[in-house]
Amino acid sequence: MQKYDKREKISYTLGTTLTFELLLRKPECATKIYISPKQKRDETYEKLVKLARSNNVKVIENNEKIFGLADKENVMVIGEFNKFSCELPNEKSHVVLNNPSNMGNLGTIVRASAAFDIGGIAIIRPAADIFDPKTIRSTMGAIFSTPFKYYNSYEDYAKEFPTHNAYPFMLKAKTTLPEVKFQEPCTLVFGNEATGLPDDFLNIGTPVIIPQSSKVDSLNLDNAVSIALYTYTINK
Amino acid sequence: MQKYDKREKISYTLGTTLTFELLLRKPECATKIYISPKQKRDETYEKLVKLARSNNVKVIENNEKIFGLADKENVMVIGEFNKFSCELPNEKSHVVLNNPSNMGNLGTIVRASAAFDIGGIAIIRPAADIFDPKTIRSTMGAIFSTPFKYYNSYEDYAKEFPTHNAYPFMLKAKTTLPEVKFQEPCTLVFGNEATGLPDDFLNIGTPVIIPQSSKVDSLNLDNAVSIALYTYTINK
Question: Which residues are B166's β-sheet partners?
Fold first, then answer.
């Protein structure tokens, strides 16, 4: 077992909580769990091993080598799983991330999307890797409960969901977020961290701006998404 | 010049944009700027040098050694400044962060607080270091426009601002965020990333919960703060 490789078909959950989420929500994808010799043989250990075995997931103990994956973290448990694909539900609202580049942001947005029970996330390439263990960690396990799908272009996504109403979030938009009357099902669209959405999106659906002071250029991407998801959720 | 040391009285802005923010918003604290030999002698360079000189800030060129500070980043410009202290304005609303531990979160919250023009941020120790260059980077320069002050306890903060109305954000709160009628001036209080606020805060002011699904344990701290600040701002 080596370091995570984006091109391979497997990835890893680093840590006990994430590995529990994997076994509880996507047991069919889990292949092995590794337990460090430093992990106490306590109640958590017993639960983990029982859950793994009941799902026919191999438990590998005391294999020090693999914990190199976890870098400096104090990781006692690692899960190994087959990468999976999801379909986005047609009847529910979606988030579209156009070229997100930061794994921490991507993971946090998956977490916020789960918190607001969004139907799923479309990720337009080029984009950060949702299966990188760093992204998985920042989802706090929400990667296993929120559908996501990669697309090569926004057009590919839009063709698949022609009845969704698009709300591109852009600093050049005229409509402010408090004014929006969301029409279901919605697609909330967000651009890259550094560059935002291209101007073309001004001609798509209802472009929206989150009102903000001139003291900053913009909000952090995951903050903008969270504010939008919260506002959508309480107004729908 | 060495690596950043928390105990020292100076810190650094890593990068051109942050260094401009320093020179524009806190020129009285800036002491030196370092310019890498790799920095093109272009219009940005001319502006930077002119701005520094007009503020009596020493410009040091071609000193390769100091760029070790910047780790792997492609940093061409570094600003050096004296750490400063701020007072929080009494008439405006505040954010209180109780024991924030993550520098990225702290920086992003400073950025969001500037975006929503909050009066200032009280940071209750133990807490992440706002002057660490990593925190400064994640503020995107907002550290130079948003007042902040460290306190040893929430009580110390509350004694200084007895007429502020506290809204502690807690998963155990009964009042949901959409129900809150904010009474000015407000103090929006948030706990540590892993542990939230202690139960004592249930007896302070109006505890508030951001409604969220059971799919996640909680929102990321900076996401929760952003949602609260946005909601406060549009309803005040």
Answer: B187
Q: What is residue B1's predicted lDDT score, i.e. its pLDDT?
A: 47
Residue A72 has pLDDT above 80, yes or no: no
For residues A122 and A157, give the distance between their C-alpha atoms in angstroms, rounded to a whole number.
7
> Which residues of B fall below an 8 Å CB-CB distance to A?
104, 108, 111-112, 114-117, 138, 140-142, 145-146, 177-178, 210-213, 215-220, 222-224, 226-227, 230-231, 233-234
Q: What is the DSSP letter of B60?
A: E
Q: What average pLDDT score do residues B7-25 get?
A: 95
The radius of gyration of chain A's CA atoms, rounded to the nearest angstrom, is: 20
Q: What are phi and psi of B156, to 5 degrees?
A: -60, -40
Strand partners, A14: A78
Task: Report the 10 Å Cβ neighbour count for B29.
Answer: 18
Q: Return the percent helix, strand and coil in chain B, to nearest 5.
A: 35, 20, 45
Residues of A within an 8 Å Cβ radius of B:
104, 108, 111-112, 114-117, 138, 140-142, 145-146, 177-178, 210-213, 215-220, 222-224, 226-227, 230-231, 233-234
For residue B163, give Cα distances in angstroms to A234, B83, B93, B94: 30, 29, 11, 12
Q: Where are the strands (E) in chain B, listed by range? A: 10-14, 30-35, 58-61, 77-82, 94-98, 120-124, 148-151, 165-168, 175-176, 186-190, 208-209
Of A112, A145, A220, the CB nearest to B219: A112
pLDDT at B2 exceeding the cut of 80: no
Q: How far is A171 from chain B (nearest CA, A)?
A: 13
Rounded Cα distance between B202 and A87, Å, is 42
Query: Please, what is the angle between helix A103-115 and helix A221-235, to 10°?
Result: 10
Instruction: Give pTM, 2 decimals.
Output: 0.95
User: Taking a C-beta distance cutoff of 8 angstroms, is the pair A171, A212 a contact?
Assistant: no
pLDDT score for B38: 84
- A-chain residues within 8 Å CB-CB of B142? 215-216
Q: What ipTM was predicted for this assembly?
A: 0.95
Least trusted range by pLDDT, from A65-69, B21-25, B216-220: A65-69
In this structure, what token pair is assigned to residue B60?
Answer: 């040091």
What values do phi and psi take at B191, rounded to 5? -90, -175
